[in-house]
């Protein structure tokens, strides 16, 4: 056949199929199901968020308990200690004594997590160290004037 003209009542090209095309629907359905299954697996395997569970006041510092090891960034700024944790916690505050002098501490929420601030009338010095203990994470903050 040399063209698309009628010959004996027939075209040389097939007519359009009036049935709907199901292949795009099948691919779209498979994509949606794949995304949903992936989201469910991701939710199941996501680690538990780190939470500040408890703060204990000790004679020369604080003991801070977490359910997991948090990412930690700490700085001494003009005798004030600021510890930033990638964790969740409720705001709280308190006071402790170091060498008979008051030291105020406060836990506040920030965009990056939780900030523990220790402030005294005189410049503070000290250190902090964390280690796993009893299935939790224990951070010991030791202070001196």
TrEMBL record:
Stretches the record annotates as Disordered: 1-22
Highest taxon listed in the record's lineage: Bacteria
Protein known as: Uncharacterized protein
Alphabetic keyword roster: Membrane, Transmembrane, Transmembrane helix
Transmembrane feature ranges: 22-42
Lineage of origin: Bacteria, Pseudomonadati, Pseudomonadota, Gammaproteobacteria, Pseudomonadales
Compositional bias of kind Basic and acidic residues: 1-20
